[in-house]
Design brief:
single chain, 221 residues, alpha/beta, Rossmann fold, Arc Repressor Mutant, subunit A, 2 domains, five-stranded parallel sheet, four-stranded antiparallel sheet, 8 helices, 12 strands, elongated, activator, transcription cis-regulatory region binding, GlnR_N, phosphoprotein
């Protein structure tokens, strides 16, 4: 890896274990602002805070906000309480970190970013944000239990379709659920009560099961 170390001394003095690894290290003074175009040429930026945590913080804040290059701050244990998310660093290393630990933390920086949260489900005025576990009906928050939320989420994700009680039981409660289909009816009744004037969004198809926003889908067709 090509590393840029912001420090006012030899990097080997602030992070001795780094000297034993085969990475190419360039140095730059802590007080020098690193342009985005320069930062992007490196795989990671190390910020030396072993002598002065305040200057290290200033260096972190001075890094170009648009630069995607991961930042690693080196701090002694006595200065750890000063570190906050405001610094914008991706990793922390103690000066006493072993070569193996330094290597591991640097390699973890190369891992791909986590997947984006699933998009919100929107249908017939219902908006469900699975990542935040929230459900709204025309902007009004719905106070749902976990299973009510899961049931509404599944139905709203398939507007116009009809599902049997057995299908809903399998999809929402899981194949290992030993209760009867009566529990589906109970939860549908509770959901309708919380939908209020819009309870008709969940329709009953006699002899089959339940569907969501069926009338609206049929009207659009």
């Amino acid at each position: 890896m090509l590393l840029l170390c912001l420090t006012d001394r030899d990097p080997a003095d602030s992070l001795p274990g780094l000297d034993l690894l085969p990475h190419e290290v360039r140095t730059s003074p802590l007080s020098l602002r690193v342009p985005e175009t320069m930062a992007e040429r490196f795989d990671a930026i190390l910020i030396d805070g072993t002598l002065d945590a305040r200057r290290a913080r200033s260096a972190c804040l001075g890094l170009a906000d648009g630069a995607a290059t991961p930042r690693v701050v080196v701090l002694p244990e006595v200065a750890l309480t000063a570190l906050t998310t405001e610094w914008g660093v991706s990793e922390l290393l103690l000066p006493t970190a072993s070569p193996a630990e330094i290597e591991l933390r640097l390699r973890l920086l190369e891992q791909p970013a986590t997947a984006a949260p699933p998009p919100a489900v929107q249908a017939a005025g219902v908006v469900i944000d699975e990542s935040n576990f929230t459900a709204r009906l025309f902007g009004r928050p719905l106070d749902l239990t976990y299973k009510e939320f899961e049931l509404l989420h599944f139905l709203a994700a398939h507007p116009g379709r009809v599902f049997t009680r057995e299908q809903l039981l399998s999809e929402v409660w899981g194949t290992d659920y030993f209760g009867g289909t009566r529990t589906v009816d109970v939860h549908v009744r509770r959901l309708r009560a919380k939908l209020g004037d819009h309870e008709g969004l969940i329709s009953t198809v006699r002899g089959v099961g339940y569907g969501f926003a069926r009338a609206r889908v049929e009207d659009e067709e």
